[in-house]
Amino acid sequence: MKFDLAHIWASMGLMSRSVAFALMLMAIASIAVVVERLIALARSDRETRAFAGAAKPHIESWSAERLAEVAAKHEGSALARLVEAAMRRYLRAAGDSGGGVEAIELVRREIARKREAVSAELRRGLGVLASVGSVAPFVGLLGTVVGIIGAFQAIGATGSGGLGAVSAGIAEALIVTAFGLTVAIPAVLLFNYLSTRIAAIELSLERSTGELVDEMENEHGRHSDSGQIKKAA
């Protein structure tokens, strides 16, 4: 039998075609997720570099209001969203002298909450890749089982166990199995790649926000010392 995908597709039953169609949908979903995530991460990296350059002078001079305004202009940056949330909370806490919680502690809590939301946004769609990578081989195996059943039905219909009676069913089974593996293997590899890249981004965000909190504590301490000196005078 000549290896002809069109002939094999034409010889497939409804169940086998349904399995192949499901695998095709999984492949399309995986490609869509990967393309969307790569574009989003590239945009975030680009926005983060622009934000870092614009924010540096305001951090050095410690202009909290201006830093929050600059961060608001770079919504595509995960770091900018964290910094904006932290600075808005810092400004509110600094202006509220009647609160029982330190302003820096409020900022830490706000950063922790916002970082969870940012991490969820960064990992959006990865569940699709994980599901495809784990399920697609079993869907392909289902196609194998269906193909083998078709081969045995052909044997029963012809009353002969020759190669000609079972070749179509076996080819159908192997093609669907190969298709399932072809969908699953890239999905797993791309899931691991994106997970590693996002983990590096999350580590960078944690380090950057930690440095921002250190700067806040340093500046807050300066203001406290200045206030105590004025009261003593």
The whole-number mean of residue pLDDT values reads 81
Structural class: mainly alpha
Describe the global form: rod-shaped
The residue fraction in helices comes out at over 70%
CA-CA gap between termini: 100 Å
Put simply, the count of helices is 7
How many beta-strand segments?
A: 0
Uncertain spans: 224-233
What does it look like?
The chain is an all-alpha fold. It has seven helices and no strands. Helix 2 runs antiparallel to helix 3 (64-72). Residues 224-233 have low confidence and may be disordered.
Brief write-up:
The chain is mainly alpha-helical and 233 residues long. Helices cover 88% and strands 0% of the residues.
Write the layout of secondary structure elements.
Blueprint: H1 5-11, H2 14-60, H3 64-72, H4 78-95, H5 103-122, H6 126-158, H7 163-232
Helix pairs in contact: 2-3, 2-6, 2-7, 3-4, 4-5, 4-7, 5-7, 6-7
Which features would summarize this protein structure in a list?
rod-shaped; disordered C terminus; 233 residues; mainly alpha; single chain
